[in-house]
Please model this.
Amino acid sequence: MIKLNEKHHASIVLGFYKALAEKGKQGLDVFVRAAQFYGEERGRRMALRALRDGHPLDYVSYFAYGEWESTPGFYDVTMTPRPGVVDEQICRCPWADVFRAADFTACGTAYCREIDRAIVCGFTRPCSWRPHRPNTTRIAANFTFAQTI
Model:
């Protein structure tokens, strides 16, 4: 059995983007809403697993209950915890790598602008995610996860 990884997922996302982009603005709006919906659903599943196991909905649980097992060598990420927040800097991302290689950085801009925020907002309300540079098709993306609960 083939184990799918982040680059496979990015290729699937890219396929949906290409198909929907052919429909113009309406198709792109559908793509954005689908990314939001998918992210919120992932966040809710993560939250339910954390609550099931007796853990609070905080950033420790958010990172512990993520749905992706990172593939070694695919990422360059730095996480810096401070009291009440975690700053995350992503300098290399497999989704951005796939979108860039296919010359579809617009897909990365649309998808990455929505997905991380949607996951956090699905995990906990009020949403405690703030992008500093949310375009992962460039060199880096910076996020702050603030403890609000």
